[in-house]
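pinging the channel bc i need a second pair of eyes. not urgent but kinda urgent?? the chain im working w is below, pasted from the shared doc
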Amino acid sequence: MTQYWFRPKRYGYGATPVTWEGWAVVLISAALMAGSIIVMERFAGAANPAGWLIWAVVVAAGVLWVVQFSRRCTDGEWRWRWGRED
């Protein structure tokens, strides 16, 4: 049996991590995001809009990848939930 790293949220849309692997995915992606902001601020600065645009595209692609990965590793489908099991 496949062990899922995420489970659907009880309220709202999306999933929440339930294993250490799921938490690792969340924490590593958050750390990479924070690190990328620090690196961009240090090396590109506010005077380089092209650098920030490239950064935004790379971050958006990374977020899309994490979301798709999380969906594949979720036990159930992602849909809006109101807290009751249906």
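so Residues 20-43 form the longest helix (24 residues). and The CA atoms of residues 10 and 83 lie 5 Å apart. — does that match what u expected or am i reading it wrong
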